Amino acid sequence: MTTRRFTDEFPPTEPAKTPVPPPQPAAPPENTPRPQPAKRPAATTSRGNAHMPRTLTQVLNEANERVVRGDLVDYVPMPTGFDPLDGFIGGGLRKTELILLGGAQGIGKTIATLQIARNVAMRPDQYVFYISYEHTETHLMHRLLCMESVNPPEIDASRGLKLRDLYQIIVAQRAKEFMGRDGASGSLQSILRENPRTAPAAGRMMRYADRLILVKASPAVTTLRSIKEMTARLCDATGGNVAVFVDYLQKIAVHPERPRDENDKVTMIVEGLKDIAMSLDVPVRSIVAADREGLKSKRIHLFHLRGSSALDYESDIAIIMNNKYQILSKDHVTFNPYTAKQYRDWVVFTIEKNRAGRAMQDMEFQLYGQHFAFDPHGQKVQQQLIDDKVLES
Q: Which residues have CB under 8 Å from 160's CB, separation 6+?
């Protein structure tokens, strides 16, 4: 027996509009394999009816069809690659969820976000849409090369490249080419491929280069609407296997709407990102900047993030980053100012909101800032932290 939808009795009064095809990317170099995304017609159907009423029977039937086909992406999270973070948030990123990451400037928010985006894109069936209002696509590529040079999760810092090292290698090799020395390579790809210091990193980066889509966003042009349109096209092109990353939330444009103040603007943005996550059936992870009071505080919390309380209401998971040395309790019996200096390169990730499990969980990860990488093998914080809200285990 066929179950009728509510919408069957109310045909549209306007003719269906012809969908606009997504822009065609430039042809890749020869011998470059083209990605072959798995098609998910059921997911597309679900997205098309995201705001239409459906009976529970219809929802169950659609979910049943996906499981029968072996399509379990709605039930299997995408690991971030950070342990024990994945264990605390239910295994990783999940479709329809909005995850916020906050902290002070320079704490490593972009490093962590780009590294997690890279980890997700390493999956052969998964694509990542990385929207950056802060950095150009080329700069992000350079960061990825430095990160790959230490090869997470192994983290071999002895072979790590810094941005200065990478630039010197490129400039020196080009100088040799201009001077006509034998064997000098002229293209960036050949330099990265042939130099012994950059070749391993470039090789690792190329394993996911076709699945990591970057865009240099503009606070004046890249609006919520344009982000949703681009994401929808990527979902259609990849069978819905897209994870969205935004750096950072407060810079997203909302015009033609005219918010009354910054709180109103942030409310529009966070509600819009949550709508993108739910209506397009994708996970969305966004960096959020702290406000002035938060920057003055010894320890930043969720309520210190710049904007309205909608950040708390709309997010499914909120993670706040603080430097461990700055938030160690000075009254703790084991505190020693000399030994405590070793914690300057450690960052505490605190899950302050968690719909997937317990909140107020503190874990720490070592930061290799010069190589734009975290050691993803972390641990729960053992020491007492200031302004602590520890829940007894």
A: 146, 149, 150, 368, 370, 371
Domains held by the chain: number: 1
Is 59 part of any domain? no
End-to-end Cα distance, the chain: 51
Whole-number Å distance between alpha carbons of 216 and 138: 9
User: Apex CA 147: angle with CA 144 and CA 148, to 5°?
Assistant: 85
Are 215 and 230 in contact by the 8 Å Cβ rule? The answer is yes
Banded model confidence at residue 238, pLDDT cuts 50, 70, 90: very high
Helix (H, G, I), strand (E, B) or coil at 220: coil
380: Cα within 13 Å, side-chain hemisphere = 8
23 occurs within a structural domain: no
The verdict on residue 93 lying in a domain is yes
How many CB atoms neighbour CB 11 within 10 A? 6
Where residue 338 sits, what CATH number does that domain have? 3.40.50.300
Q: The domain containing residue 301 runs over which residues?
A: 76-161+197-380
CB 94 within 8 A of CB 178: no
Domain-embedded: residue 184:
no
Q: What is the pTM of this model?
A: 0.83
pLDDT reading at 50 higher than 50? yes
Averaged over 65-93, what is the pLDDT? 88
Q: What is the pLDDT of residues 162-190, one digit of tens each?
A: 999 999 999 988 887 766 655 555 789 99
CA distance to 62, 204, 224, 386, 387, per residue, from 288 (Å): 35, 29, 15, 22, 21
